Amino acid sequence: MAPPDPKQKQSLQKDKIRILLLEGVHQTAVDLLASRGYTNVEHLKTSLPEEELIEKISRAHFVGIRSRTQLTRKVLENAPKLIAIGCFCIGTNQVDLKAATELGIAVFNAPYSNTRSVAELIIAETIFALRGIPEKNTVCHRGGWQKTAKGSYEARGKTLGIVGYGAIGSQVSVLAESLGMRVIFFDVITKLPLGNASQVGSLDELLEQADVVSLHVPETPSTRMMMGPDQIARMKPGAILLNASRGTVVDIEALAEALKNGNLAGTAIDVFPVEPRGNEDEFVSPLRGLDNALLTPHIGGSTVEAQENIGVEVSDKLALYSDNGTTTSSVNFPEVALPGHAGAHRLLHIHQNIPGVLSAINQVFSENGINISAQFLQTNELVGYVVIDVDAEYSDLALEKLKNVPGTLRCRVLF
Ligand SMILES: NC(=O)C1=CN([C@@H]2O[C@H](COP(=O)(O)OP(=O)(O)OC[C@H]3O[C@@H](n4cnc5c(N)ncnc54)[C@H](O)[C@@H]3O)[C@@H](O)[C@H]2O)C=CC1
Ligand SMILES: O=C(O)C(=O)COP(=O)(O)O
């Protein structure tokens, strides 16, 4: 499918700007958008099957999703009006970022708002798994009584191995140390250890030492199936595996096998290779029915505090980008923090980062005698983003000319 037609006029009244929010994004997002004049919001509770998603996104100027909605190249190529995507979560692996960038669509997320929620859940799961609580709880529900100290351990003095020492992993580290755990971590980047934690040189080294292994890496080609049968077999006998990162990081069949044959004592899994689209759909997993597996429905970041904050944070980024073109903290766009543009019309030009585009843009202004009152430019590997403030009387002419600059992806005017 062809890239979007840059000739299409994209400057719109706020009530004409269509915003599609999926997956039960918190009401704070709707409220914030309304307070900024954006009232044309469709707010749905679940993700959508691809066909329905394409139908709705084809009319949307902004879309808000969480971790479930897959914004593939095919979907994005069917979104000619789309200006930006808000991921109301941390992970952006569900978006084809390259496609979004090549199509001139900015992507934003909430990199920190739910990190504490995940870290707290991991600490609770560590204690529960070390005490065999998932199994004991199930036995009680069946009318049994498993009062025994066998296989039940304190967290104090045990070794926690954290894979991925980022925003979440490092918070888990601090909380675990306050319980008296020894913390080791593995990361592809050399990280400053917090407290008494220490970085190890390889995943294998971590797996051989840790009583509890907790995964906090993003979904990337390098983390896909990083816990396969060999890595699971390398864990200490009776160790525990926790995963609240992404379902593709662990070979779930190999994990189920290790739990059945007793190589691992327990697990707590929050994320799965395939997750239901909404609360009405059935959850299917080889881990179902295993008493030593604590299963949660991808709720690591689902606390009232986190969701309220994420709703505000991401919708604020979308509104700011729509209002004045600011792209601060965008995950795929050159970052430009822009001042207001009172009195001037602001042209936003997103183009392929190829030689000659900038001089062609500047030519538009020099050849037509249009005075530039402010100009901002930032580029990344794929795209360039130029913002130009001009006198109101010239913006229509400049917009028309800019749309014809070869390499243009999107161009709009704000006033
Ligand atoms: N279960 C849930 O509800 C939630 C899950 N998440 C998941 O947790 C992930 C981590 O979140 P943050 O800590 O905020 O991310 P982050 O980006 O702050 O940290 C990730 C760390 O993993 C490291 N890393 C990347 N590739 C690696 C590899 N191959 N081996 C070892 N280390 C590697 C990075 O260098 C970085 O230090 C997110 O990407 C998301 O997928 C995040 C929030 C909620
Ligand atoms: O923040 C993340 O990356 C998460 O995994 C949380 O996803 P969710 O918003 O709960 O679908």
From TrEMBL:
Matching Gene3D superfamilies, A to Z? Answer: 3.30.70.260, NAD(P)-binding Rossmann-like Domain
Record has Oxidoreductase as a keyword: yes
Q: Does the keyword Chloroplast apply?
A: no
Family (UniProt): Belongs to the D-isomer specific 2-hydroxyacid dehydrogenase family.
According to UniProt, this protein's pathway is: Amino-acid biosynthesis; L-serine biosynthesis; L-serine from 3-phospho-D-glycerate: step 1/3
Organism, as annotated: Microbulbifer halophilus
Q: Give the reactions, separated by semicolons, that this protein catalyses.
A: (2R)-3-phosphoglycerate + NAD(+) = 3-phosphooxypyruvate + NADH + H(+); (R)-2-hydroxyglutarate + NAD(+) = 2-oxoglutarate + NADH + H(+)
| NCBIfam families assigned to the protein according to its UniProt record, in alphabetical order | PRK11790.1
PROSITE patterns given for it? ACT, D_2_HYDROXYACID_DH_1, D_2_HYDROXYACID_DH_2, D_2_HYDROXYACID_DH_3
Q: What is this protein called?
A: D-3-phosphoglycerate dehydrogenase
PANTHER family, sorted: D-ISOMER SPECIFIC 2-HYDROXYACID DEHYDROGENASE CATALYTIC DOMAIN-CONTAINING PROTEIN-RELATED (PTHR43761:SF1), D-ISOMER SPECIFIC 2-HYDROXYACID DEHYDROGENASE FAMILY PROTEIN (AFU_ORTHOLOGUE AFUA_1G13630) (PTHR43761)
